[in-house]
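Thread: quick sanity check before group meeting

JM: Hey all, I'm pulling together slides for Thursday and realized we never actually wrote out the predicted structure for the chain we discussed last week. Dropping the sequence here so it's in one place. If anyone has concerns about the input, flag it before I start.
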Amino acid sequence: MQLLIDKINSEIGTILIVSDGEKLCAVDFVDSELRMIKLLQRRYGNFTFLDVKDPQSFSSRIRAYFKGDEQSLDDIPVNTGGTAFQQQVWLTLRTIPWGKTISYGELAKKIGKPTACRAVGLANSLNPVAIVLPCHRVIGTNAALTGYAGGLERKRWLLHYEGALTLTCTLRRM
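JM (edit): ok, ran it. Output follows.
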């Protein structure tokens, strides 16, 4: 199996963009490349990367996000793999609007499993297409910036960039 990979620079580090030739299957930061590869190996077994500039225009659309285009990521087709539960959590992330946040508990309620906060948090931590499926918009019940595979500083930056987090750490809720 061959996966297409591109690297783009952003304000929060170099981003790896991986496609299966049709859909986006991974977005991660270069400092998490080994983690990303392990997750891809679980899904695809043996694979190789083919360096491709802007596969399916996914890189351009992620660059557009970093230039302020709030809709550039909305309809990117994704192939996330994962369990049915994980897919439900990940796809529900797309319902969280730019500039808004939701708690893990609220996300669990949205998927119809109000007592599954921890399972939702675990699924969120394994989101294979960060930023595109905006797991950074999920916060702790007390508005704490908890958990982000890319690091809390990146989560803080993304929320501030989207206007969900002001310099005084005020969060806008859905």
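AS: nice. The chain is about 35% helix and 15% strand. Residues 33-44 form the longest helix (12 residues).
JM: adding both to the slides.
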